[in-house]
Structure formats: structure tokens, C-alpha cells
Design brief:
about 500 residues, alpha+beta, about 15% strand
């Protein structure tokens, strides 16, 4: 009764009791049977492998709000639910995620915000031209100003002036503005690179959700087989009791096992429906849309690689690392801009227009001004701005250094998980075969009247546990491959390679 399936990580076996109300069942033989994997366990696994992705630091230098790993679990709903059942492949789910996932959308907004900051800094280096048209009507009381001339009225006017004018201001030399603009350019580039890394996070999040649903379907298949086996044992115990060859206790024990199997099946079906909701949330699918998983990802050994080679590839591929490097350069330029506050600035301003009492009498007038200015005494401000910029630079350097080490740890951790999970797949697959053989032997002995059905009940619990562990090992192996692809930085461009799907 081996199940060719995928499921939740081994941590689910350790934490299933009490999660979402899905505790472990206990067989009549006294052994605890592993309960169905839970949504919470899947989310904990995803947090572990994606929490250090780096995308959450997308806006440290631009002032926007950050994008967290939890944002990738949401989406903007695209379209409306359709009649019938939608066939949803893994590729379809990921492509939908690229279009509608909340993390991707928020990253796009971060790009727009960073570009706006860059343009704001650029304007300080470009000419600024404004225009105005004014009509002024005045009447002046000369006596109010102490002016009084014989034969001249003290009240002058009313009279009007008509002025059409354009104003120009241009910075000829401003080192601080130049450095600020260059820093904004690097921050903008860093945000773009971080947004590109968002595709890796989408693949990891959606891929995990899809594999979790496959796991749930596989567990349902296993639980249905367990229930069928329990029904066979119950029928046999009932027949033996009716024939007078076994006590009522055997029937009661078989009934408890059958009901436990039915409870586990109910829980497994509920878990699948909830995990499908989580998948729909991540890809923008209407929650009322019915869909069926079109793909299954069986065990396929990962391609051999070394930690050193994978880490070297990650340093070249990880867009979030490249984005952090850009922000380090931006912080360096911000520090230079703070130092440049004390440098002289050269600006020119001017205006040109026509001025007169009426449009017909207007005459051209202009003003041109050149100005050199420099701060003479602002010691506290200059030093304070320099200290703030230096602190931000140290923070960016520390983040970058830490992220490099985190990537190294992620790569090595994923390789360890792949190696361990591959061994677990082989071991648990053997355990499933042995448990099925033991169950068959116990059923035959009970059928022959050699023993009671206590051994059958115990063998059923062991079979269920073996199937759960096999399902978990398959899931753990495949999600570890996705985790490695994200750690190295190619999940967003070649997730099929990550799972060795080929053209599937």
C-alpha cells in the first residue's frame, strides 16, 4: 500500500498534535498514529527557508515600507470564478503568481518610488524655468511716505503695469547635489535588482503551496487505503466473532481502528481544502474557484553539486545580493554628499520679460545674477549629517556582509536537507514495504485463528506511520530542491530545473 506521494516536512510529524485541532489518533493497539500534516507546519517550513531571502530590505535607502516574506502569501485576485473544475498545473500556478502575487506588486511599487526619488535628486542639477503673467493696479498716497511737492497731488494713480516674465535658475556647481543624485541612482538600481529577486520568492512560495497540496492529496490516498484495510480487519473480526472463534474484544478493537482511520481521512480532506485556499491566495485565484492539481512530482534525485560551487553561483546570481551592493555604494555617496555640504556652490538666476502700462507699451526687461555661496559656520549640522550618513553606510555594509553569510548558510543548509531527505526517502520507502508485509502477515494469522487482532491493530498503526514518514520525506526532498534553487538564485528563471521536471 505504498503511496507515491509528496507531503509535509518531518516537522509536521512532531507538531501535528494540537495544530489546527488535528491531533494524533491512537490505535487500539496502543501506538500513536501520525496525524495528517497541517497548514501551520507547512507555513513554518516556508518561513524557515524564505525568511532570509533579502527581499524584505528592498526599501531601506528609499524610505518606503519593506516587503516581507508574508506578503508573498497574498495576491490581487485576477478574474472571476468559472463554472467547472480548473486544471491547475505547477507551471500555471507559478505564472499566475508572477502576475498577481502581492510581493511582486509591492516590489513594482518600490521601483516606482525609488525612481521618483532619483528624479527628485536629478532636478537639483537641471535648469528650473518658471513663467508668470501679472497685471498690477496701484494707487499711492505720497503723503503717507512723507512726500509732498507743490503742484503735485499727493494721491497718484490709479495706474497699472502689465508684466510677462520667465524665470531661470541653474546650479553650475553643487557637489552635494551631484553626490545625492548618484546615490539615488544606485538606490534605484538596488531596488530594481531586489524586485527581480521577487520572482525567486514567488516560485518558492507558490511551489511550496502547490507541493503541500500534492502532499495532502497523497495523504488522503494513503488514509483511504488505511480505512479500507481497517474495514477488512473489522469484517474479519465480526465474522470470527459470529463463528464463535474470537471474543467480542477483537470486534471492539477493530471498530476503534476503523473509526480512527475514518477520522484521519476527514482531517486529511479538510487540510487539503485549507491548503488549496492558501495556494489560491498566493496566485490570485478566486477563493470560490474549484480547481484540481494537474501535476505530481515524484522522487527524482537532485543533481550532484558542492557547497562551494553552489555558493559561488549564488554570489553571481542572487539579485538581492547585487541590490544590497548597490545600496552600499549609494550609502558611500550619501556620506560624500554630507561632507560636500561645506563646499562652495555656484548658482545663476535670471529673468526676462516685458513690462509696461499696457500690452502695446511693454518693453523687454531682464535680470541676470551669478552667486557663489559657502557655509561659514554650521559645524554642528555638518558633523551631524556626516555622522548620520556614516552610520547608514556602516549599516548597509553590515547588512551586505551578513546577507553573504546567510546565502552561504542557506546553500549549505539546503544541500544538507537534500542529502538527508534523499536518504529518508529510501529508508521510509523500505519501511512502507516492511509495514505492509507485517500487516498482511498479521491479517493472515488472525484469519487463521492463530492469534487475536491486537497484532493487526498494531500493524495498521505502524503502516500508517510509515506512510506518513514516506510522504514527509518526499515533500522534504522536493522543497529542499526548491530552497536550493532560491538560495543559488535561479528559481525565478528555471524552477523546472530545480525540481528536475524537464519538459513536464
Amino acid at each position: 500500500m505504498a503511496a507515491t506521494v509528496l507531503a509535509l516536512p518531518l516537522a509536521a510529524q512532531q507538531t501535528s498534535q494540537g495544530n489546527n485541532g488535528q491531533g494524533q489518533g491512537t490505535s487500539a493497539g496502543g501506538r500513536a498514529a501520525s496525524g495528517p500534516a497541517t497548514v501551520q507546519a507547512a507555513q513554518q517550513t516556508l518561513q524557515t527557508i524564505s525568511g532570509s531571502g533579502g527581499s524584505g530590505q528592498s526599501s531601506g535607502a528609499t524610505g518606503g515600507s519593506s516587503v516581507s516574506a508574508n506578503d508573498y502569501k497574498g495576491s490581487l485576485v485576477s478574474g472571476t470564478a468559472t463554472a467547472g473544475v480548473l486544471e491547475l498545473s505547477l507551471d500555471d500556478a507559478i505564472q499566475r503568481g508572477f502576475r498577481t502575487n502581492l510581493g511582486v506588486i509591492l516590489q513594482s511599487s518600490q521601483i516606482q518610488s525609488a525612481n521618483g526619488s532619483r528624479l527628485q535628486q536629478l532636478q537639483a542639477l537641471l535648469p528650473t524655468v518658471t513663467g508668470s503673467a501679472t497685471v498690477t493696479v496701484q494707487q499711492i498716497n505720497l503723503a503717507a511716505y512723507g512726500l509732498s511737492f507743490p503742484g503735485i497731488p499727493t494721491i497718484v494713480g490709479p495706474f497699472q503695469t502689465v508684466d510677462f516674465r520667465a524665470y531661470l535658475s541653474q546650479s553650475l556647481l553643487n557637489v552635494q547635489s551631484i553626490q545625492n543624485y548618484l546615490a539615488a541612482k544606485h538606490n534605484f538600481q538596488g531596488t530594481k535588482l531586489t524586485a527581480e529577486d521577487a520572482r525567486n520568492m514567488v516560485v518558492l512560495t507558490v511551489g511550496n503551496a502547490y507541493l503541500t497540496c500534492i502532499a495532502d492529496e497523497s495523504r488522503i490516498t494513503a488514509e483511504e487505503a488505511e480505512k479500507a484495510n481497517a474495514k477488512v480487519s473489522l469484517d474479519q473480526a465480526t465474522a470470527n466473532h459470529d463463528a464463535g472463534t474470537s471474543p467480542r474484544l477483537d470486534v471492539l478493537r477493530a471498530q476503534v481502528d476503523y473509526q480512527n482511520a475514518d477520522q484521519q481521512l476527514i482531517q486529511a480532506r479538510n487540510t487539503l481544502e485549507k491548503d488549496k485556499l492558501a495556494l489560491a491566495r498566493a496566485i490570485g485565484l478566486p477563493l470560490e474557484q474549484q480547481f484540481r492539481l494537474a501535476d505530481a512530482v515524484p522522487f527524482d534525485a537532485a543533481k550532484p553539486t558542492t557547497a562551494e560551487q553552489s555558493f559561488s553561483d549564488a554570489l553571481k546570481n542572487r539579485k538581492d545580493l547585487q541590490g544590497l551592493a548597490e545600496r552600499v555604494q549609494g550609502a558611500e555617496l550619501q556620506k560624500k554628499a554630507a561632507v560636500a555640504e561645506q563646499y562652495p556652490k555656484v548658482d545663476v538666476t535670471g529673468d526676462f520679460g516685458t513690462l509696461g502700462r499696457t500690452l502695446g507699451s511693454n518693453h523687454g526687461t531682464y535680470t541676470a545674477t551669478g552667486e557663489v555661496s559657502a557655509p561659514i559656520l554650521q559645524i554642528a549640522k555638518t558633523r551631524g549629517d556626516r555622522d548620520v550618513a556614516d552610520a547608514q553606510l556602516q549599516q548597509q555594509r553590515a547588512r551586505y556582509s551578513d546577507q553573504v553569510q546567510q546565502v552561504n548558510a542557506d546553500v549549505r543548509g539546503a544541500l544538507l536537507d537534500i542529502e538527508t531527505a534523499a536518504k529518508l526517502v529510501e529508508a521510509t520507502r523500505s519501511n512502507v514495504d516492511l509495514a505492509n508485509e507485517a500487516l498482511s502477515e498479521a491479517q493472515q494469522r488472525f484469519r487463521s485463528g492463530v492469534t487475536d487482532n491486537l497484532a493487526v491493530s498494531d500493524a495498521q498503526a505502524q503502516t500508517q506511520q510509515a506512510n506518513d514518514q514516506y510522504i514527509s520525506a518526499l515533500y522534504q526532498h522536493n522543497v529542499a530542491k526548491l530552497s536550493l534553487a532560491r538560495a543559488v538564485g535561479y528559481a525565478g528563471t528555471d524552477y523546472k530545473q530545480a525540481l528536475q521536471l524537464g519538459g513536464k
